[in-house]
Amino acid sequence: MKVLVALKRVIDYNVKIRVKPDHSDVDLTNVKMAMNPFCEIAVEEAVRLKEAGVATEVVAVTVGPKAAQEQLRTALALGADRAIHVDTSVQTDAPVESLAAAKLLAKVVDAEQPGLTILGKQAIDSDNNQVGQMLAALTGRPQGTFASEVVVDGGTGEERLKVTREIDGGLQTVALPLPAIVTTDLRLNEPRYAKLPDIMKAKKKPLDTQTPDELGVSVSSGLKRIRVEPPAERQGGVKVGSVDELVDKLKNEAQAL
Fold this sequence. Notes:
Number of strands: 11
Shape: globular
Strand order of the largest sheet: 9-8-7-10-6-1-4-5-11
Helix content: 25-40%
Oligomer: single chain
Mean pLDDT: 90
Strand content: 25-35%
CATH topology: Rossmann fold
């Protein structure tokens, strides 16, 4: 079974975000970029399926600028066999919106025909949590979102996927026929670190570059960004002497009651 794993280039989660002086966007000057943490979990799960003998090939794919090839090489170092880069810089320098990314990934899925497609449930830059669900709708494949456990069951003669997913009421297990789409949650696994020998080997693994024009998809934005503001600074707390004083502050100052 071929596993396709999608990943995204984002600002490293350890970096403190800065907004441009004109409030037009986030300042990316000399900012460290990395693979989205949820995507790291997706790559790890795909590699584990291959190590378990369930998957025969792991293909990493990303949608983004030329610099995103760095994250693809990281995925190759972690165990992916080959990579596909959909270079959007030929159409735009702006970030690609969720629907356009899903349409591009759908074209890749149609061409590769993987038995399983794994994505992080969301990216830490936009936090939209949309691409996996959109991709499932566009390809007509069943989906298991927020996966905390993924098991391929072939005991009945036909491979099916059992996905344990986290919901508000606890855990829910769904059985999906393959091919399917899965989005990963934090508790699915603990991603490994790339070793130096694997990083060197990744430089020789195949990386194919495609463009949105070749795939017949436009990535032009339908949204207009008005203004970007940093989050408000958290104010220091205060001590109260009694329950009555606490209730008064909550009612009259915080207006929470």
